[in-house]
Amino acid sequence: MKEYDFVVIGSGIAGLSFALKAAKHGSVAVITKRKGSDTNTAWAQGGIACVTSDEDSFELHVRDTLEAGAGLCDEAVVRTIVTEGPERIRELVELGLQFDEREISGHRELDLGKEGGHSKRRVLHVQDVTGKEIENTLLRELGRQSHVELMENHMAVDLITAAKLGFAAEDRCLGVYVLNEKTGEVETIRSDRIVLATGGCGKVYLYTTNPDVATGDGVAMAWRAGVEISNMEFIQFHPTCLFHPLAKSFLISEAVRGEGGILRNNRGEDFMKRYDVRGSLAPRDIVARAIDAEIKRSGTKCVFLDVTHRSPEFIQERFPHIYQTCLRFGIDMSKQAIPVVPAAHYQCGGIKTDVNGAASLQGLYAIGEVACTGLHGANRLASNSLLEGLVVAHRAAAAAVRTRRGSKHNVPLPEWKSGNVQDVDELVVIYHNWDEIRRLMWDYVGIVRTDKRLQRASARLRNLQREIREFYWNFKVSVDLLELRNLAAVAALIVDSALCRKESRGLHYTLDHPGRDDRQFKSATVLSRD
Ligand code: SIN
Question: Of 203, 234, 313, 441, which has the fewest Cβ atoms less than 10 A away?
Answer without folding.
Answer: 313
